[in-house]
Amino acid sequence: MTISLRHNGTHSGAHSAANSASNGQAPTGATPVATPIVTAGRKQRGLLHYIGVGMSAGVFAIVIGLAAMLIVVPWAAGATPMTILTSSMEPKLPPGTLIVVKPKPINDIRIGDVMTYQIESGKPAVVSHRVISESTSTDGSLTFITKGDNNAVADANPVVAGQVKGVLWYSIPWLGYVNTAINGPDRAWIVPILSVGLFGYAGFMVVAGLVDARKRAAAAERD
Fold first, then answer.
1. Are residues 91 and 161 in the same domain?
2. Number of Cα atoms under 13 Å in the Cβ half of residue 189
3. What is the pLDDT confidence band of residue 7, given thresholds at 50, 70 and 90?
4. Contact call for residues 168 and 113 (beta carbons, < 8 A)
5. Domain total for the chain?
6. Alpha carbons 80 and 128: distance in angstroms, whole number
7. Domain check: are 140 and 198 in the same one?
8. Quick one: pLDDT at residue 12?
9. Residue 155 and residue 95 share a domain
10. What is the C-alpha separation between 3 and 30, in angstroms, rounded?
């Protein structure tokens, strides 16, 4: 009789522990290790997700900013983006600097302005140097003497009104190389490659977002 009672008590206790385990509850005295591990995994996935979103937003903002500075703003203002290729305007405008040149009435050009002008009248090659003096001829026409900031002497030939393309509006270091790539002779293949790359990146982010949403939904169902 005593043996039977002990057997029943032991069996009842084991059955109770099994029921507790099947109901998702840990038996008394057991250490619940599964729940903290799953929670930590979810927190880690969430952190990586937000880091990815932040990086994507940063890349998108940079692309939009470059497009604005290289294309939209100059186009809206009737200005022209150009690239400094020589060291004549160092240190303020070293090679590779993007300069945006904006038209300005001849009579409003002042000493100290960085002026972009044709090296030879009627020819496309231009240079951007600083105006160091100006003079008015008897017929009222203006001429300018220019000099590169890094040059020891002034430019040999005065600049007449017909040569002037505009004056410096704003400049951004190093972006001149990007401008040369986009607007230079290699534009025919660089622009399509950049476009495909941007669209591909956008598509990847959309797919990654959908996959992440499905994983979170599946995890919620398992819980």
1. yes
2. 1
3. very low
4. yes
5. 2
6. 13
7. no
8. 43
9. yes
10. 28
Q: Angle of helix 175-183 relative to helix 187-222, nearest 10 degrees?
A: 110
Going by pLDDT thresholds of 50, 70 and 90, the confidence category of residue 15 is: very low
Which pLDDT belongs to residue 193? 62
Identity of residue 212:
D
Dihedral sign, Cα of residue 16, residue 20, residue 21, residue 26: negative
- DSSP for 48-111, please give it: HHHHHHHHHHHHHHHHHHHHIIIIIHHHHHT-EEEE--SSTTTTTS-TT-EEEEE---GGG--T
Residue 181 has pLDDT above 80, yes or no: no
Structure tokens given for 75? 């186009």
Q: Which residue has the tokens 């029943």?
A: 8
Q: Which amino acid is at 161?
A: A
Place of tokens 């990847």: 204
Residue 78: exposed, middle, or buried by beta-carbon count in 10 A (0-12, 13-18, 19+)?
A: exposed
Range of the domain at 134: 81-174
pTM: predicted TM-score of the whole model, two decimal places = 0.57
| CB contact set of 173 (below 8 Å; sequence gap of 6+) | 94, 96, 97, 98
Q: How much of the chain, in percent, has pLDDT values that exceed 70? A: 63
* CA–CA dist 120, 68 (Å, integer): 32
Instruction: Count Cβ atoms below 10 Å from residue 178 Cβ, excluding itself.
Output: 18
